[in-house]
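Sample entry was shown:
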Amino acid sequence: MNLRQLKKDLAGSMNKIEYPIDKRSWHPGLIPGPIVLVSTCDEKKKPNIAPKSWVQMVSFEPPILMFSGTKGNTTEVNILQTGCFGVNIVDATIASRVFGCIQWYGLERIKKAGFSLVTASKIEAPLVAECRAHLECRLHRTSEIGSGFVVFGEIVAASIWDRIAAAASDEQYALLEQIVFLENNVYSVLNRTEQVDTNRRDQKQQ
């Protein structure tokens, strides 16, 4: 079925079929997740980076985000030891390196994936220089939910490439070029935006 025919069918009634509840079996993925590199260090300042995609804001005041990982992994152990972590926003230009870096561990991962680390402004954990934006977080709390180990962090500092901040609003997302995880080895690029005319919609509803 071609795309034109599919769009035509969407305009009419849609017949829904049963779908797996296991996210690992979703093709296509139904809940995209922003891909980030979580950067940490242990008590001896040995750095580590790990790709994550189960990331979400949970509070405006204070600004708190969460990500889900695995209890006992290096990232989670480091965060419990030092009480901090960096969230480095991944863009399309480094996507293949991020997906491929999981074949290595620790310092070897950082070196062979070609990443370089820089000092953060308010946390002990480093940041990934090749990323275009960063969030520095202090550990707020953790929670075990099913097989997941959820880490909540308060954002204490944020930084972004100055060219993105200075760009026109309709160009900023294209420059950020953030990617989201869809399924294994499949991602999408967030470089196109649409703005809803809410005033127009409200007028129609009156």
